[in-house]
């Protein structure tokens, strides 16, 4: 009959989200709720602010500063080097197979971390690593005598670059692909040089993507534990190592303080990821 309402059919596609929702609740939401609750409790279960106040102590504050400094340095160098590499792959006129090989390698290397990565760097750039020995015996150059030390702050930053740089390549390449030839042609028709095009058109368009990638790299480095621990042990008290010592250690055992440390990490990493999402949404406007 005219005007009769057609019954709405059930949309069973929502069932496909149930496995994701289940795992997100089980391994993300519930653990965060547990950490937040534990951060405001004593070992006896009483409410307290002492755990959060303890985060302002000199040792823990220094640990946060070390983690932030290491994350900023590795994210900065990873973002700059990854941007230059991506530019060469996308806009440098290289053969297509070179881009495919680098993107494939980046997908593997960006997930290569922890103990295997630490062992690879020790075997390569350690005091008896293959590169160190070759430079000493073949070229007569003592790498460690010149001041390099893999087990130092800058050695850690160099190790982080192994997974930071490929991650930058993976996430900035689509942004470079989004640069339209019409923009360059319009700039050239108006008399702009190649440098002016990049300074006044391309870089402003890419800026949200570059800053967003930098924040993502920062968050990625901030939560790294296994690589630091395997490479330097407890020599560098970054926040994840202090958290591990509070939750699993025999001397500094204080799980509730560990929960407060984890809460601080969640807030810092969460803030970085939120800014990344905001900047990514602004960058996607240019690709529409």
Task: Describe the protein's architecture and organization.
With 288 residues, the protein is mainly α. It has a single domain (29-287), classed as MetI-like fold (Orthogonal Bundle). Helices cover 71% and strands 0% of the residues. It contains 12 helices and no strands. The protein has helices spanning 18-39, 50-54, 58-91, 96-109, 115-125, 130-137, 153-177, 181-189, 194-222, 226-232, 239-248, 255-284. The chain starts with 17 loop residues before the first helix and ends with a helix. One of its GO terms (biological process) is transmembrane transport. It comes from Xaviernesmea rhizosphaerae.
Present the secondary structure layout.
Blueprint: H1 18-39, H2 50-54, H3 58-91, H4 96-109, H5 115-125, H6 130-137, H7 153-177, H8 181-189, H9 194-222, H10 226-232, H11 239-248, H12 255-284
Helix pairs in contact: 1-12, 3-7, 3-9, 4-7, 5-10, 7-9, 8-9, 9-12, 11-12
Structure summary:
By secondary structure, the protein is an all-alpha fold. The chain is built from twelve helices and no strands.
CATH class: Mainly Alpha
Q: Sheet with the most strands? A: none
Discrete helix count:
12
- Residues in β-strands, percent: under 5%
CATH architecture: Orthogonal Bundle
Helix-strand pattern:
HHHHHHHHHHHH
What is the number of domains?
1
Q: Tell me roughly what share of residues is in helical segments.
A: over 70%
The chain-level structural class is mainly alpha
Could you list the spans in which at least 5 consecutive residues all have pLDDT below 50?
Answer: none
Provide the CATH superfamily. MetI-like
CATH topology: MetI-like fold
Rg of Cα set:
24 Å
**Distance N to C terminus:** 42 Å
Total number of beta strands: 0
